[in-house]
Every structure is written in structure tokens, then in C-alpha cells.
Specification:
This protein is of the alpha/beta class and 240 residues long. It contains nine helices and twelve strands. Helices cover 45% and strands 19% of the residues.
Length: 240
């Protein structure tokens, strides 16, 4: 998915990166994540980190690419040195608020400065031996995400009706784990690039409950447009 020169990941890739982060810790507020590059994986990491509530520091030497990411809502700040990045991160991380900062600097020199200054990320997306010796954990590329793939959309007025569907999905989840945070916070951080797109892993019972609730909402007029729900790629359309 291209935006200018940015290669956006599919929503499933953002979800899987979010799942990997929250598998490390259910509460990442106050944590710092370090990643490199605003390629598809880097973009997925920045967005997923914000959804998970962490602070992230991205290293992107291409200033124009970083500015494009800022305009597209991938990151919150773009700065040109580590000092500026740390000022922002320290304040937001202290308050346990999600924030995504990109510094337009060369990776190896910036990593060396991070080590020298004693900055300690909790999570790394690429291995740095010294930081790992200090306790940083390497984010796994793949994490087990059981359940059915469930997506949903509406035929019109997505700003009005998709949030109603989101509420039904949240209510259908039997255990309010990290997926509840995904449902609540992902729409804000995914932004216009993924407008109207929804993705979740559900158990069979949860998916059944979600479909039943959607049908009831259509029947009672709580939702007044056609709804489409796909389970593992098989789409069910619900109309009044």
C-alpha cells in the first residue's frame, strides 16, 4: 500500500506487530521501543507501538521519508538529533503516554550515542548486544495469534456506523485482553490510511456472538446500513 514514497503495511501486519508487543507485556505505558527505518516493517512498528501505549524512537536517515511519515500520521514528531528526541520521549514516557518520535540520523552512530549516554530501551526491533545485555528484549518477528480472522465494514457512513460495530466486537470478546485495547485505540492511530478497515482475531464463540449482535443491531435499527463481516475470508452481508 503506497502513500507517496512510503510503503504502508497491510492492516494484518500492524495487528501482528501489536500482538508481538503486547505478548512481551500487557502494559507498555512508560516503555521505550527502538526501531530502525520507515520501511513497511518500521511503519507497522511505529503505529503498533502507539496503539500499545509505548514510546518509540525510530532511526531514519532519509529526512524526506521521515517528513512524509509525519504528514501521513505514522509518527508524532520528526527531529534531527538525539537530544531533541530524548526531550520529547522523556516527558511523554514519564506520563506513560504513547508517542512516536523519528530522528533523522544514521543508525550506527545514533545507536553508539544511545549506548554511550546510558539510554535504555525496553524493547528492540533489531539486535543491539550492549542494550540486550542491559536488559532490552528483542521483539519477535512472529507471535502466535490463535483464532479466526474477523474483519468488518459498512456500506456507507463509516464514521457513524463502524464505531457501533467496534462496540459490538468489544462486547463479544470473552476475555478483555490486549485485543480490547486494539479495538478502542487502533482507529485513532491507523488514521486515514486505513479508514474504515477493521481486523481482529476471535475465537469461534466470539465470532458467533459478534455476528449475532450485528444481526440484532440491524434488526432493531441500531445500525441502519448494510454490514459485512468476514470470517477467515468468507464474507457475510447483513441487511435489514
Amino acid at each position: 500500500m503506497l502513500f507517496g514514497e512510503l510503503d504502508f503495511p497491510e492492516i494484518v501486519d500492524v495487528y501482528l506487530r501489536f500482538a508481538a508487543l503486547t505478548a512481551l507485556s500487557a502494559d507498555l505505558g512508560g516503555s521505550l521501543l527502538l526501531y530502525s527505518g520507515l520501511d513497511s516493517n518500521g511503519i507497522a512498528t511505529a503505529i503498533a507501538s502507539n496503539i500499545a501505549g509505548a514510546g518509540s524512537l525510530g532511526l531514519e536517515p532519509d529526512a524526506e521519508r521521515a517528513k512524509q511519515a509525519l504528514r501521513a500520521g505514522v509518527c508524532d514528531f520528526v527531529v534531527n538529533n538525539l537530544d531533541e528526541a530524548l526531550r520529547i520521549l522523556k516527558n511523554e514516557i514519564r506520563k506513560k503516554r504513547a508517542v512516536s518520535v523519528v530522528v533523522t540520523a544514521e543508525q550506527s552512530a545514533t545507536v553508539a550515542e544511545i549506548i554511550e549516554r546510558g539510554v535504555q530501551p525496553e524493547v528492540l526491533v533489531f539486535p543491539v548486544q550492549k542494550l540486550m545485555e542491559r536488559g532490552a528484549r528483542l521483539l519477535p518477528e512472529v507471535v502466535e495469534t490463535p483464532g479466526e480472522v474477523v474483519t468488518w465494514s459498512v456500506s456507507s457512513e463509516p464514521q457513524r456506523w463502524v464505531p457501533v460495530m467496534d462496540g459490538l466486537a468489544a462486547a463479544a470478546i470473552e476475555q478483555h485482553d490486549a485485543r480490547a485495547r486494539w479495538i478502542e485505540d487502533a482507529p485513532h492511530y491507523l488514521g486515514r490510511t486505513y479508514a474504515g478497515q477493521r481486523y481482529l482475531r476471535m475465537t469461534g464463540a466470539e465470532a458467533d456472538a459478534f455476528l449475532t449482535a450485528a444481526r440484532e443491531a440491524i434488526k432493531t435499527g441500531a445500525i441502519q446500513v448494510e454490514v459485512s463481516v468476514a470470517r477467515n475470508g468468507k464474507t457475510v452481508s447483513i441487511t435489514s
